[in-house]
């Protein structure tokens, strides 16, 4: 029976945490839900994280199929995903929150919606291109039945942790302040940049093995 390397899935969990940066998104969550009652805010947090889990799990199981449909190799997708992660990482290290994940038109549309749990919180702020591409690459590299179960559980644990953070968002935002959140965002950006470079290096090494000699 295939064993489970906990460290591999822990790396995936940390990578998701760095990509999504739920601590950095908390001020946005508080702003979008400040007109709601505590019960409605909790419901919105639940909706957002259930949607994130569904989006990432669907990406996990359907990712390889989509790559095959468009005749895209995993290594090419890994390089493209790595470049995207590095781009988001540079934005995070500059202290920008959400600009890379949500454009001005999406922001304007979200203001008029009462239910912000799915749009823009779940997508594109949390389950954006970076998180989706990372999940597809990881799922393609670990495609055994046990791996799919373990990755699915990792995604569910991640969504639950984000839900706990969002429930406590008003208190955490007040405690950390904008400076503290910016520091955490920059640290997450550094981790995300390193993860993106690993993706790029792995893809280039597989496509052009002679370059890695």
TrEMBL record:
Q: What does the UniProt keyword field contain?
A: Cell membrane, Membrane, Transmembrane, Transmembrane helix
For this record, an example GO cellular component is: plasma membrane
Query: What domain of life is recorded for the organism?
Result: Bacteria
A Pfam family annotated for this chain is MarC
Cellular location(s): Cell membrane
Q: Which residues cross the membrane?
A: 6-32, 44-67, 79-97, 118-140, 146-166, 187-208
Protein name per the record: UPF0056 membrane protein
Which species is this UniProt entry from? Vibrio ezurae NBRC 102218
């Amino acid at each position: 029976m295939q064993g489970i390397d906990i460290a591999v899935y822990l790396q995936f969990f940390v990578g998701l945490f760095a990509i999504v940066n739920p601590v950095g998104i908390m001020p946005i969550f508080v702003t979008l839900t400040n007109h709601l009652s505590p019960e409605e805010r909790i419901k919105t947090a639940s909706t957002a994280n259930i949607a994130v889990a569904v989006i990432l799990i669907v990406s996990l199981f359907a990712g390889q199929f989509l790559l095959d449909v468009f005749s895209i190799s995993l290594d090419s997708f890994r390089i493209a995903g790595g470049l995207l992660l590095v781009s988001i990482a540079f934005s995070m290290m500059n202290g920008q929150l959400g600009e890379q994940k949500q454009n001005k038109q999406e922001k304007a549309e979200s203001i008029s919606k009462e239910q912000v749990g799915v749009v823009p919180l779940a997508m594109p702020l949390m389950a954006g291109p970076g998180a989706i591409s990372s999940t597809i690459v990881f799922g393609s590299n670990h495609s055994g039945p046990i791996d799919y179960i373990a990755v699915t559980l990792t995604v569910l644990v991640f969504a639950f942790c984000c839900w706990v953070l969002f429930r406590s968002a008003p208190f955490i935002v007040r405690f950390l302040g904008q400076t503290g959140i910016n520091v955490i965002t920059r640290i997450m950006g550094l981790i995300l940049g390193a993860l993106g470079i690993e993706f790029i290096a792995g893809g280039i090494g597989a496509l052009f093995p002679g370059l890695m000699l």
